[in-house]
Amino acid sequence: MSQEALNAILKPSSIAIIGxxxxxxxxxxxxxxxxxxxxxxxxxYPVNPNADEIYGLKCYPSIMxxxxxxxxxxxxxxxxxxxxxxxxxxxxxxxGLVVISAGFREIGEEGAKLERELLDICRKYGxxxxxxxxxGVINTSVPVNVTFASSRPLPGKIALLSQSGALCxxxxxxxxxxxxxxxxxVSLGNSADLNIVDFIDALxxxxxxxxxxxxxxxxxxxxxxxxxxRETSRKKPIVVLKAGLTSMxxxxxxxxxxxxxxxxxxxxxxxxxxxxxxxxxxxxxFDNAKAxxxxxxxxxxxxxxxxxxxxxxxxxxxxxxxxxLVLAWLSYETIDGLKALLPEHASIINPxxxxxxxxAERYERALRLLLKDQGVxxxxxxxxxxxxxxxxxxxxxxxxxRSEYPDKPILAVFMGGDSIHEAIDILKSNNxxxxxxxxxxxxxxxxxxxxxxxxxxxxxxxxxxFERNINLVQRVIGRAKAEGRTVLLSHEAKxxxxxxxxxxPRSGFAxxxxxxxxxxxxxxxxxxxxxxxxxxxHKTDVGGVVLNINSDHELESAYDSMMRNVATLLPQARxxxxxxxxxxxxxxEVIVGVHRDLQFGPLIMFGLGGxxxxxxxx
Length: 618
What we know:
The protein is of the alpha/beta class. It has 21 helices and 26 strands. The chain is flat.
């Protein structure tokens, strides 16, 4: 996306609302109101041929009647007239469109045709478009809000990119209560033109964005997603909730935005390669967002747990082991300090139990000791409301100490109900992530640690150059296709592997026993004998493999027995012959394959082979 197009959508200098309405509650009315209430400083042009003014703003019969230039046009009219008003916007010189209107690809072929027409108009005039079928766009740093959401977000460091407008709206309503603020919110809708990858790329260098949180139903260009996300994740974390991973979810995605959902394995692989952090729920998406947006990235996996209750401390300890984190070994200096601070029967071994009678001062002194310890990379502070607990004062302590030790993350777990509300509000308003239960905090911390490690081991992949005989491969595959086969025979597959320079055991294809004996003597005993048939993929199941044949006599016996077994068990199978192969020392049996995914292209499958393929499924 060009910088000019990006600015027109995220930082517009002037806005026209085509379909602006005087009727309270109408989408065209809410958008005008939200633009005004956002504090947008540029000219606002409501377009409505049946109104003189809306909220004190002069209305225009069409965008062509506006004398000045227009940077961004927001379209809310019925879908069947959207192409016509988009054409006018193009003639006017508009650079960006946000099409709120629904009734396009998501409703079927008729809507898809309309969407293609709209996209053609955008390309004709060089306009870039968000939508259609979307909530709109917010940028709190401009500030500008061209959505019909009922709630306004707090400014913050989280960018939210979503393929669900309703989810955006719900999150915008919920976020202020959680103390979460946003830099940018983009509801992508059908992504007919600009898609989630375009905005990940656009936000890569945005100084107001510290983390990108995404709700994804599908991507149209998987290889570009990996390329852009990989480059962006080196600069800031990308946390993704991928919907449509089950068969029912895939169908729901198709009817929602018309997206191709893709396979769970492909997305999981792509996320790992791109350094993206996958999550399983909306709650987890924002558990991570609030930590990444407010805390430093930890330098390692060594965690200190500070608690006033043994049970939650043990739960947190179990979670650390489950998620691959390590309980920090405390220095002698830290242990001596804790001994001097805590009652005699308190636990000074990580997890540190300051006991149920701990007040804010005990928490503060213990927390300082832990943060000073060079062997501690992060601290999880757990509080349960007991008779003498001071939740509010303890929250203030966390705020104060965190300001003195800004280089290590502190995650709070304040468990309880009414008695901790004020404390939680203090933590949220001071950008200290707080969780209801220890497992949530530990899992979030695990993602932060994994992200930090991914930055340290990041490398640029270079293409591997090697010799290959393409003509030979094409002949082998062409012959199989000419025979109507979709599977190469084993000796054909080995020919292909040799053409790509892979070392394979010596072998030969024999159509009869005499040829098999000749090949075996040429290789030298011991050898293996394997049936060759396009109808037999699992040879062992039908007696189609015999190993460790040490003489001509054993080979003759194995050959006769194999042919009888196969004829009995699979009389309809076409037998091409047998493969005679040298025996090699024991090694690791692996399976290698390639699957072409609709979104991500060729995916390589690699794992334990043989009988373990369906047992371990690695």
